């Protein structure tokens, strides 16, 4: 009996010491699936819609914790973010890569840490495709080809002696969206004897840069027929530069405008006749990526590359109701 009481006393003392030692009870594990997301930046309206889609999808209510890092369009910032995610031991890493090249080493580091990776929006160019689970995003080459087909049909009645002078505004060099939209146009120019580049200018997917380079360009040459702008924000910059230079554009203007993304503001301009063609780049990746993650977690097979559905719009495809009902 004596031994029994001394045992009780010891236990009571132990509990007391623990409660006085300042050690807090760990908060109950909420059992969230933690995702580290390295986003390209906030360079465009498209990107903001893409970020929103991810934030709206991966919520705590649905069992996720989304840790997002904005890379400000720099790959080295993406490497730093990914290394932090590895140290934190997240359950999954999603990367929207700034550019295609240079990912082998960091993806190997993630693989060695045993964390699955999803490449989203753009693509990576790596020798070993097992370094990532899947690539979810746009078919950028098909987007470029949609633009080319439209331009071919618009210029089909042009005489062979007339030259079509194209001012090409390029997005971030080395990004899939730039590489493949550029490829489609360069191939088309090489196949049409009377199509030529007035110039290829670097706009980095931003309105400010495009405004600057187009303004500079128009100081010396105003002889252009088409602007092929690799995203909507660069288009807005180019439109301002054209206005400053007194050049008309759009359906009844001197310069026809092709723009990529088809975000709300661009569609509105298209309906107003200021942009001739809006090629869609769908930014609403959240739900599709979540579906792939769910399948992966259930042990189901997932495809190596998933393309989102996209189309192109001209004035005649649009109504105000349609534009108002668009999510982005
Ligand atoms: O990768 C998608 C492209 O990146 C979009 O066209 C552009 O707006 C964004 O910055």
Task: Summarize the topology.
Elements: H1 2-20, E1 33-39, H2 45-57, E2 64-70, H3 75-88, E3 92-95, H4 104-112, E4 117-121, E5 134-137, H5 140-154, E6 164-170, H6 176-191, E7 195-202, H7 207-220, E8 226-229, H8 232-244, E9 256-261, H9 264-271, E10 277-280, H10 286-297, E11 305-307, E12 312-313, H11 320-325
Parallel strand pairs: 1-2, 1-3, 3-4, 4-5, 5-11, 6-7, 6-8, 8-9, 9-10
Antiparallel strand pairs: 10-12
Bound molecules: alpha-L-arabinofuranose (AHR).
What does this structure look like?
The protein has 328 residues and is an alpha/beta fold. It folds into two domains: 124 residues, 3-Layer(aba) Sandwich (Rossmann fold), CATH 3.40.50; 153 residues, Rossmann fold (3-Layer(aba) Sandwich), CATH 3.40.50. 42% of the residues lie in helices and 19% in strands. The chain has eleven helices and twelve strands. It has a six-stranded parallel beta sheet with strand order 2-1-3-4-5-11, sandwiched between helices. Helix 9 links the parallel strand 9 and strand 10. The protein is elongated and about 65 Å long. The protein starts with a helix and ends with a helix.
């Amino acid at each position: 009996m004596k031994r029994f009481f001394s045992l009780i006393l010891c236990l009571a003392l132990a509990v007391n010491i623990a409660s006085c030692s300042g050690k807090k009870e760990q908060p109950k594990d909420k059992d969230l699936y933690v995702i580290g997301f390295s986003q390209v930046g906030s360079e465009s309206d498209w990107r903001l819609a893409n970020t929103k889609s991810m934030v709206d999808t991966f919520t705590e209510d649905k069992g996720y914790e989304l840790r997002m890092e904005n890379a400000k369009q720099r790959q080295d910032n993406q490497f730093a973010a990914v290394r932090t995610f590895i140290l934190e031991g997240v359950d999954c890493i999603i990367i929207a890569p700034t550019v295609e090249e240079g990912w082998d080493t960091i993806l190997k580091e993630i693989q060695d840490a045993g964390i699955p990776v999803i490449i989203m929006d753009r693509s990576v160019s790596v020798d070993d495709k097992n370094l990532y689970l899947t690539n979810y995003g746009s078919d950028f080459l098909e987007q470029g080809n949609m633009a080319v087909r439209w331009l071919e049909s618009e210029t089909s009645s042009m005489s062979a002696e007339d030259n079509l002078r194209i001012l090409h505004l390029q997005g971030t060099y080395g990004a899939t969206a730039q590489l493949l939209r550029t490829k489609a146009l360069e191939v088309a120019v090489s196949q049409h004897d009377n199509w030529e580049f007035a110039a290829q200018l670097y706009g980095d997917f931003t309105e400010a840069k495009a405004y600057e380079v187009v303004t500079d360009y128009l100081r010396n040459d105003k002889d252009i027929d088409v602007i092929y702008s690799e995203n909507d924000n660069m288009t807005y910059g180019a439109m301002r530069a054209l206005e400053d230079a007194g050049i008309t554009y759009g359906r009844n203007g001197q310069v026809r405008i092709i723009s990529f993304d088809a975000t709300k503001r661009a569609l509105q301009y298209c309906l107003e006749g200021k942009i001739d063609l809006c090629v869609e780049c769908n930014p609403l990746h959240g739900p599709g990526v979540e579906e792939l993650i769910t399948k992966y977690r259930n042990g189901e097979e997932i495809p190596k590359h998933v393309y989102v559905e996209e189309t192109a719009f001209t004035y005649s495809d649009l109504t105000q109701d349609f534009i108002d009902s668009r999510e982005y």
